[in-house]
């Protein structure tokens, strides 16, 4: 019996390692496409690896990935799965917001010395109106993960330096209302890739939903995420 238990534990560890490797490879592929294939519109329809799927339309509604960052609460992204949106996900490149209000990449020297404080803002559901908000599912619970992706930037190329590193993860619960919601996180970068340039990628995965009155599709109107060096 003891031998069977040990064998089952070993198999479970192997499966976990396999899933983690696949996850890291996916993040690596996504970042590679973000820089090398998407042109000037990474959060638009070109960044195919930036989301799990995309619902094209329901009646008069459209739910493209780019709507997550268009600054318009009347539009929303929605995944195309038939599982109420469970396990659907989106990726975002977390940028530094400097004192002048500009976004830029992080550098290892400052990030390693200070760490990074991250602000995550979300308009949950389809926020065009209270009526529309309740028609579709809204996110109730989500897994938020932050990955470090080291890259070596050349004059005309960008090479990802090894596999991404999962820095932290947390399960969050969202309130069921139409107003903006805010969450704070802190991450510390790995110290092994200091000759490269770091990217921080956030993965937001839906775990549970508030059910809609008319549709079983889960919407998010807006996501904004940025970081600042910790004090």
What do these coordinates show?
With 231 residues, the protein is an alpha+beta fold. Helix content is 21%, strand content 37%. It is built from 3 helices and 12 strands. The strands form 2 sheets. Strands 3, 4, 5, 6, 7, 8, 9, 10, 11 and 12 form a 10-stranded mixed β-sheet that branches. Strands 1-2 form a two-stranded antiparallel ribbon. The protein starts with a helix and ends with a strand.
Tally of helical segments: 3
Secondary-structure element string:
HEEEEEHEHEEEEEE
Query: Into which percent range does the helicity of residues fall?
Result: 10-25%
What's the mean pLDDT score? 87
Task: Give a topology summary.
Layout lengths: L1 H35 L20 E2 L2 E2 L14 E2 L10 E9 L5 E2 L3 H7 L1 E9 L5 H6 L2 E16 L4 E3 L4 E9 L7 E7 L9 E14 L8 E11 L2
Parallel strand pairs: 4-12
Antiparallel strand pairs: 1-2, 3-12, 4-5, 4-11, 6-10, 6-12, 7-8, 7-9, 7-11
Short synopsis of the structure:
With 231 residues, the protein is of the alpha+beta class. The chain has helices at 2-36, 108-114, 130-135, and strands spanning 57-58, 61-62, 77-78, 89-97, 103-104, 116-124, 138-153, 158-160, 165-173, 181-187, 197-210, 219-229.
Structural key phrases:
alpha+beta; 12 strands; 231 residues; 3 helices; single chain; two-stranded antiparallel ribbon; globular
């Amino acid at each position: 019996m003891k031998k069977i238990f040990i064998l089952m534990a070993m198999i479970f560890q192997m499966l976990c390692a396999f899933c983690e490797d696949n996850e890291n490879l996916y993040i690596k592929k996504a970042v590679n496409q973000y820089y090398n294939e998407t042109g000037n519109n990474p959060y638009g329809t070109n960044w195919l690896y930036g989301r799990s799927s995309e619902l094209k339309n329901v009646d008069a509604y459209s739910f493209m990935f780019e709507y997550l960052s268009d600054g318009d609460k009347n539009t929303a992204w929605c995944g195309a799965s038939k599982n109420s949106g469970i396990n659907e996900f989106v990726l975002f490149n977390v940028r530094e917001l400097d004192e002048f209000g500009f976004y830029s990449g992080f550098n290892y020297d400052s990030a390693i010395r200070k760490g990074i404080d991250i602000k995550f803002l979300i308009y949950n559901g389809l926020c065009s109106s209270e009526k529309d908000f309740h028609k579709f599912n809204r996110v109730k619970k989500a897994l938020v993960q932050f990955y470090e992706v080291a890259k070596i930037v050349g004059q005309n190329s960008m090479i990802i330096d090894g596999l991404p590193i999962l820095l932290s993860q947390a399960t969050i619960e969202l309130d069921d209302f139409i107003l903006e919601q805010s969450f704070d996180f802190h991450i510390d970068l790995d110290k092994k890739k200091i000759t490269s340039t770091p990217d921080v990628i956030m993965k937001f995965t839906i775990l549970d939903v508030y059910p809609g009155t008319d549709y079983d599709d889960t919407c998010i109107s807006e996501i904004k995420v940025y970081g600042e060096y910790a004090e």
